[in-house]
């Protein structure tokens, strides 16, 4: 008696999709996962300070930082310093984002625009913006204009690079489809090209908000009369390491929250686009 083996057809595409998902995707999103890493760092910092593995001369204990924060808030103008720093960062970031995005559109949608814009931007990428601060001081003085323009120039480059790359990465089949169904160039740019470049723009925003914090840290060391950097400079003169750590923590919170806001915006705006992040 011969046994008959019945083969059940297997959907290979479904299996491949499951394998790829298991290998590359993060699976079910963990609630508040974005804060697990910082909480772990805080726990290690606290444990190290409590056990003496991290001496106060190396890094102030978290509870001493909290006390210093309260002292700066009650007895000094910590809120005013925070608002001054935020104003500089927001103004510089806004100017850099608008300028970088506009240049990317000009360069990404026009060969002539690319020949005029892309070369100078690439030259700028090879010259650190922070090295230009002495020149900016000679041009604009040491007031707010120099600080805001420095932050703007730092944030301009990542916005331009990633937005330009997004514009140039649009699949050519969409252009062919637009020609086939008779969509005009203006409608094609508005409804296909710009939305297609949005992921690149948002990626550039993540780099830009981090770069704005880097620029803020540096420019606030130059004759600032208010701001977190001004507070750190005074604390350095008086040897107040706990206040210095307060300022560094504030800078870190600024950047972390800004990056989280950009990521959340990306998830909302790009809900139509399945990515590994989702």
TrEMBL record:
Entry's localization field: Cell membrane
InterPro entries recorded: MetI-like, MetI-like_sf
Membrane topology: Multi-pass membrane protein
PANTHER family named in the record: ALIPHATIC SULFONATES TRANSPORT PERMEASE PROTEIN SSUC-RELATED, ALKANE SULFONATE ABC TRANSPORTER-RELATED, MEMBRANE SUBUNIT
Stored Gene3D superfamilies: MetI-like
Membrane-spanning residues: 32-54, 89-113, 125-142, 148-167, 188-209, 243-264
Protein family: Belongs to the binding-protein-dependent transport system permease family.
Presence of keyword Transmembrane helix: yes
GO cellular component, one term: plasma membrane
Pfam families in the cross-refs: BPD_transp_1
Coiled coil start-end: none
Alphabetized UniProt keyword annotations: Cell membrane, Membrane, Transmembrane, Transmembrane helix, Transport
GO biological process, one term: transmembrane transport
Keyword Lyase on entry: no
Name this protein carries in UniProt: Putative ABC transporter permease protein
PROSITE patterns reported in the protein's UniProt record: ABC_TM1
Domain ABC transmembrane type-1: 82-262
SUPFAM superfamilies tied to this protein: MetI-like
């Amino acid at each position: 008696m011969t046994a008959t083996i019945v083969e059940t057809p297997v959907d290979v595409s479904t299996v491949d999709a499951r394998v790829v998902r298991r290998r590359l995707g993060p699976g079910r999103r963990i609630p508040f996962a974005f804060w697990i890493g910082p909480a772990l760092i805080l726990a290690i910092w606290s444990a190290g300070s409590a056990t003496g593995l991290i001496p106060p001369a190396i890094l102030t204990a978290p509870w001493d930082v909290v006390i210093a924060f309260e002292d700066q808030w009650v007895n000094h103008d910590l809120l005013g310093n925070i608002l001054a720093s935020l104003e500089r960062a927001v103004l510089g970031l806004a100017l850099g984002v608008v300028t970088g995005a506009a240049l990317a559109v000009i360069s990404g949608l026009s060969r002539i625009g690319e020949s005029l814009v892309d070369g100078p931007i690439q030259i700028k990428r090879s010259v650190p913006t922070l090295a230009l601060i002495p020149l900016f001081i000679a041009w604009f003085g040491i007031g707010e204009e120099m600080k805001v323009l420095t932050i703007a120039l730092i944030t301009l480059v990542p916005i331009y690079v990633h937005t330009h790359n997004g514009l140039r990465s649009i699949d050519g089949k969409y252009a062919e489809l637009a020609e086939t169904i008779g969509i005009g160039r203006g409608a094609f740019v508005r409804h296909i090209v710009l939305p297609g470049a949005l992921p690149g723009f948002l990626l550039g925003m993540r780099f830009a908000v981090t770069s704005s914090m880097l620029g803020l840290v540096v420019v606030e060391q130059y004759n600032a009369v208010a701001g977190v950097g001004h507070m750190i400079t005074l604390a350095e003169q008086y040897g107040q390491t706990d206040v210095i750590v307060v300022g560094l923590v504030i800078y870190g919170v600024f950047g972390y929250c800004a990056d989280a806001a950009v990521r959340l915006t990306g998830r909302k705006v790009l809900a139509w686009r399945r990515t590994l992040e989702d």
